[in-house]
Design a protein that fits this description.
Layout lengths: L7 E8 L2 E12 L2 E16 H39 L2
């Protein structure tokens, strides 16, 4: 299995029942080494029928990440409060 890293998504088109999602990567500008630019790296092609499932899975993952971050922030706050109480 090949792994592809992407910094983001470019254009998304639908052609003949397939969704084409351009994946982009941030690289140094060859003309100006101090500048970063985004360039296409590859295109993900999937049947239109698979797009809904992929979108739902991405959304569920994002919700889980946000819930995990919220839970971690609450635990960190609780630990800080407990530390403050022990300092009294």
């Amino acid at each position: 299995m090949e792994h592809v890293f992407t910094d983001g998504v470019g254009s998304i088109t639908v052609v003949n029942g397939n969704v084409r999602i351009e994946l982009r990567q941030i690289v140094r500008d060859p003309k100006n080494a101090g500048k970063l630019v985004s360039e296409p790296t590859t295109t993900l092609i999937m049947p239109l029928s698979s797009l809904k499932d992929a979108t739902v899975k991405l959304a569920n993952t994002m919700e889980k990440i946000q819930a995990d971050e919220k839970a971690k922030a609450q635990m960190d706050k609780q630990a800080e409060d407990e530390d403050a109480l022990t300092q009294l």
